[in-house]
Every structure is written in structure tokens, then in C-alpha cells.
Amino acid sequence: MVAVGYGWLNVLRRYFIVMALGNLFWEFAHMPLYTLWETGRPSEIVFAAVHCTGGDILIAMSALLSALFLFGSSKWPEADYRRVALATTLFGIFYTVFSEWLNIEVRGAWAYGDLMPVIPVINVGISPIAQWTVLPIFAFWWAASQKEAP
């Protein structure tokens, strides 16, 4: 739970710092699981990771804003913190499943390499799902665990 009097702006700042840096790290870390790792030039790989991080930040903002509209209250983050965090995480996961399907199966914008573990039936990589499970949970935990400086 968030400390009483802990401002919503500080929580948002901490959440987005973790999401931005975490997604940047994750995008580079799981790049070997995509075919671009084998076929792309280093500059293309770096561009893809930075570009995807930008998209991840937009997803994180959209998911949080949607969760706040639907499940937040004027007392957030002191109230409804866990509900908003859970909804944000689920929105991120659902969007990721849709986006991976759309960009792999329909558009052919990217492809998984042989090393990417895939969830059967939905054919979505485990790494992107893990990314949108682990990072928001950690970001919300870290944002709530910090005490506001006097």
C-alpha cells in the first residue's frame, strides 16, 4: 500500500522511470529471440530496440490511464492502488497478445527466431508476455515502496 500523503505525481514518475528503463533493457535483452538478431545490421537492431521501447512507453501510459479511468478514484494512489496496478498489468498483457499476433501473423512486421519460446494455441512469445507481467508489477511495487522526501 502507498504511504498516506504520497502524491500521485510521484507515483506516476516512479512508475514511468521503471517502465522506460525496464523496457529499454528488456528490448535489448530479448532481441536474440527475434529473427532481426540474425538478419539485421547492428544499427537496425539498435533502432528496433529503441523504437519498441518508445511503443512500450506508450502502452504503459495508455494502460495506466485506462486503468485509472475505469478503476481509480480521486484518492488514488492512497486508495485503489492494487486494483489500478492489476488492471494496468492486465491491459498491458492483453494489448501485447493482440500486438504480437497482429505484427507477426497479419502484418509480418517481425518474426520470432528459433530460440523464442511460444505459448501454444495463441502463438505468442513468452518473453513479451513476461515483459508485460514482470515490469508493471515491479514498477508499481517500487513506486509504492518509496517514501516521499520531506
Count of domains? 1
Q: What fraction strand?
A: under 5%
If you average the pLDDT, what whole number results?
93
The secondary-structure class comes to mainly alpha
Widest sheet, order of strands: 1-2
Q: Care to count the β-strands?
A: 2
How do the helices and strands line up, and which of them pair or pack?
Blueprint: H1 8-29, H2 36-39, H3 42-71, H4 81-106, E1 118-119, E2 124-125, H5 126-145
Antiparallel strand pairs: 1-2
Helix pairs in contact: 1-3, 1-5, 3-4, 4-5
Overview of this protein structure:
The chain is mostly helical and 150 residues long. It has one domain (8-145). 68% of the residues lie in helices and 3% in strands. It has five helices and two strands, in the order ααααββα. Strands 1-2 form a two-stranded antiparallel ribbon. α1 (8-29) runs antiparallel to α5 (126-145), α3 crosses α4 (81-106) and α4 runs antiparallel to α5 (126-145). It is elongated and about 50 Å long. The model has no long low-confidence stretch (mean pLDDT 93).
Quick overview:
This protein has about 150 residues and is mainly α. It is about 70% helix and about 5% strand. The chain has five helices and two strands, in the order H-H-H-H-E-E-H.
Index terms:
single chain; 150 residues; mainly alpha; two-stranded antiparallel ribbon; 5 helices; 3% strand; elongated
